[in-house]
Write a structure and sequence with these properties.
The structure holds two protein chains of two kinds. By secondary structure, chain A is mainly beta. Chain A contains two helices and 31 strands. In chain B, strands 1, 2, 3, 4 and 5 form a five-stranded mixed beta sheet that branches. Classes of the chains: A mainly beta, B alpha+beta.
């Protein structure tokens, strides 16, 4: 993104009256160059490892992988094919520092996991930041009317897996307590039911009361779930305590519907959407006092909040008839910033575990946005109607 | 009566643990061959009044009544206010329920395709609740009225543009035999 400021008048040695042009180029975070030419890949699994690591390092936003031997950071070592898997033994070196890293992988899936782990380790050791390569994304393929299913993939878009086979309406999948645990609202029984499922395993209803059962956001301490119920007659935000199996009502809005709860990183607050002031906007409730505060005023609709580990809330804002992704401070100071470089019509944002990147849906597919200014990256290449992504934390 | 699987589910819920492995693959409609049990399979949850949240869904326990058409109620964009032009349709529904004591009703709320799917699910529920509230005001026993929302998942008409959207922002009625 290039911002051009035109200033008139006597500045420095400029000829008086001639405009002074200052260009501020926002091109994302500065990237360190990494050379992987010292990784000796002799077979297909070794190549898969290098390919996966290369893409992970590029997606991390902190590194640029060079094709040659030159690099501020070098990764050297051996990648030994072991039939179906790979033995890796590497050394990562950067000015004044290094670490050794070794891993055995028994299958292609484990080879990819190993590369993800090394990428995250490099982000942690070299940049002192949280990596995202080992995280996963859950999302929906909406094929048509009342016809969708839940899918998951790795943060690089690979290892896609279809979780449900319902061909039924499905809404708002969210991660549970780990990267195999998801919650989502299914319309398969003919009414909204909140389900909890182990990926590749069993599932069970978590809430299936009269009326609405949706939401399903786990608190950071994993002891509570924020959910939207209407068993008392109106859609409201509740917190289910898993220790006592008791629900506590957080909102009382006879003329409003609540949706899309998400927790603050400290577990003390929940951001959510309510239309108590006519149009849907983002609010935040203090869980202890149950006092709510409205956070968004700009835009005709503000929906789908996601709260990052770096204490920023991103959300979809409808401005001039087009949805865009913005972020704001949860303090409610009214300031918001649109994420640069996003595709038109971006919706459904969810923060990456690094608190820097955002997954969102646009043009029937998923994109990774960068709050530091790197261009958007299309995550899913295959055709479908990919929606409602949630990034594991 | 609580069956053993349900007890296991309760224990898992209380502990916040995941059910992994045997014994529970088939107890919710996870594939085309299994049946779809209803409310009794949901782990107990205690409401604000200290009592278990109860309530059986008409869809799971009653037989659907076929052959009676009740006209859909339409809504303005982003609204669940009942327009004066629509209330006569709700009065017809009330009349039917007051004349047919064995019938119970599920009011179904829908939205057009625009906006957040999560918000639309809540908006659809409030549309259904608005109709339900009006039916109660007209003298129908609230115990005979339930709601369900399909959000924007089940449009009456495919496509886009106001002519399509206005047909999709609606409340529908499903009668069941008690």
């Amino acid at each position: 993104m290039v911002l051009v400021l035109l200033l008139c008048g006597g500045v420095g040695s400029q000829v008086q009256g001639e405009p002074l042009q200052i260009s501020i180029v926002k091109e994302g975070a500065k990237k360190d160059s990494v050379s992987l030419s010292g990784l000796r890949a002799s077979g297909p699994n070794g190549q898969l490892f290098v390919q996966t690591l290369t893409r992970d390092l590029e997606l991390s936003g902190w590194f640029k992988v060079s094709t040659g031997r030159e690099g501020t950071i070098t990764v050297v070592g051996g990648l030994l094919e072991t039939g179906s898997g790979l033995q890796t033994s590497t050394k990562v070196t950067w000015p004044g520092k290094n670490f050794n890293w070794a891993r055995n992988a028994a299958s292609k899936a484990e080879v990819r996991q190993a590369a993800h782990t090394l990428a995250d380790e490099m982000v942690k050791q070299i940049k002192n930041e949280t990596g995202m390569a080992s995280s996963r994304i859950v999302f929906i393929n909406r094929r048509g009317s009342n016809n969708g299913d839940v899918y998951v993939c790795d943060a690089d878009g690979g290892s896609m897996f279809q979780v449900t086979h319902d061909s039924a309406g499905v809404i708002g999948p969210l991660w549970g307590i780990n990267r195999n645990d998801i919650l989502y609202t299914s319309l398969k029984p003919g009414y909204p039911t909140l389900l909890r499922q182990t990926i590749g395993g069993s599932r069970r209803p978590l809430a299936s009361f009269k009326g609405l059962n949706t939401g399903g956001a786990f608190s950071p301490d994993q002891r509570r779930i924020a959910l939207i119920l209407s068993y008392q007659g109106n859609a409201e935000l509740y917190v289910l305590d898993l220790g006592t199996s008791k629900v506590t009502r957080m909102t009382t809005t006879p003329s409003g519907a609540e949706s899309s709860p998400c927790w603050s990183p400290d577990g003390k607050s929940i951001a959510y959407v309510s239309d108590r002031d006519k149009a849907p906007h983002v609010y935040v409730v203090d869980v202890a006092t149950r006092v709510s505060k409205r956070l968004t005023y700009k835009g005709s609709q503000n929906v789908n909040p996601s709260w990052s580990c770096k204490d920023k809330i991103c959300y979809a804002t409808l401005r001039n008839g087009i949805f865009q992704i913005a972020m704001m401070s949860p303090s409610g100071d009214g300031s918001s910033e649109l994420i640069s470089g996003q595709p038109e019509g971006s919706e459904d944002p969810s923060w990456a575990p690094n608190g820097r990147h955002i997954i969102c849906s646009a043009r029937n597919t998923l994109y990774i946005l960068d709050s530091l200014g790197d261009p958007a990256v299309r995550l899913i290449q295959s055709s479908g109607n990919w929606r409602s992504p949630d990034w594991s934390k | 009566m609580m069956n053993s699987r349900m007890m296991i589910a309760n224990i898992a819920l209380v502990c916040g643990l995941l059910m992994v492995g045997t014994g529970c693959e088939s107890w919710w409609g996870g594939d085309e061959t299994s049946d779809t049990p209803g409310i009794t399979d949901v782990p107990n949850v205690i409401g604000e009044d200290g009592k278990n949240i109860t309530g059986t869904r008409f869809e799971d326990t009653c037989k659907k009544v076929e052959g009676i058409t009740l006209a859909p109620v339409y809504f303005a964009f982003d609204s669940y206010a009942l327009a004066p032009s629509e209330t006569a349709k709700i009065e017809q529904v009330a009349k039917h329920l007051l004349a047919n004591e064995s019938h119970v009703l599920v009011v179904e709320g829908h939205c057009d395709a625009r906006g957040s799917a999560e918000y639309n699910l809540a908006l659809g529920e409030n549309r259904a609740q608005a109709i339900r509230g009006h039916l109660v005001n007209l003298g129908v026993d609230g115990n005979r009225l339930q709601t369900r929302s399909f959000g924007s998942e089940k449009p009456a008409m495919a496509g886009s543009g106001e002519a399509v959207w206005k047909m999709n922002r609606r409340g529908e009625f499903a009668l069941y035999q008690k």
